[in-house]
């Protein structure tokens, strides 16, 4: 079986200097952090709404615990992403030192 013959889009990209690439990488880290902040905020609001519903008697303790488990799972994934972003930031910092 042969590999597909795909055009190489990178042949058409403009040249970027190292500084612009590093700035772009830092900007992407910032954007990802902002996205994670929105997720964390939404999960906090989810917990607040569930607790309020529980206090009003609208949901059971099992439902409240289910929401907690769901939020816990999302927060674990957010933490994993934060660790990866930290690695990415370390790599960019190393590249900046090399300038």
Question: What's the topology here?
Answer:
Layout: H1 18-55, H2 61-97
Explained architecture:
This protein is an all-alpha fold and 99 residues long. The protein has one domain (28-97). The protein has helices spanning 18-55, 61-97. It is elongated and about 60 Å long.
- Which segments are poorly predicted (pLDDT under 50) over 5 or more consecutive residues? none
Structural class: mainly alpha
Strand content: under 5%
H/E series, N to C?
HH
Q: What is the residue-averaged pLDDT?
A: 90
Major sheet size, sense and barrel closure: none
Tally of distinct domains? 1
* Helicity, as a percent range: over 70%
Number of helices: 2
Rg from Cα:
22 Å
Judging from the principal axes of the Cα atoms, what is the shape? Answer: elongated
Terminal-residue CA separation: 44 Å
Number of E-state strands: 0
Pfam family, one: A_ENA
InterPro entries: A_ENA
Main attributes?
99 residues; mainly alpha; elongated
Explain briefly what this protein structure is.
It is built from 2 helices and no strands.
